[in-house]
Design a protein that fits this description.
membrane, mainly alpha, 69% helix, 4 helices, 0% strand
Length: 77
């Protein structure tokens, strides 16, 4: 599960930074904020000792759900 967290964290962080640099379409600021938040949630070393009582599995599944729900923002515009 930790390798999945690393992959999601790195991909979401780089995608969020790329959207911050270009901002090419409607609602791109919301999407970039969501991607940066997903990168924060999935970062394994930050949450290694469960500071809020949340283990790795629920956090990573939340990030996966956020990334899968991302295309719904495209249909709003």
């Amino acid at each position: 599960m930790a390798i999945l967290g690393w992959i999601i964290s790195v991909v979401a962080f780089l995608a969020g930074l790329a959207l911050r640099q270009d901002l090419p379409f409607l609602y791109d600021d919301r999407i970039s904020n969501g991607l940066l938040f997903a990168a924060f949630l999935a970062f394994p070393p930050l949450w290694a000792e469960k500071p809020l009582g949340i283990s790795a599995t629920p956090r990573i599944m939340t990030c996966v759900a956020m990334l899968l729900a991302l295309p719904m923002l495209y249909f709003q515009g």
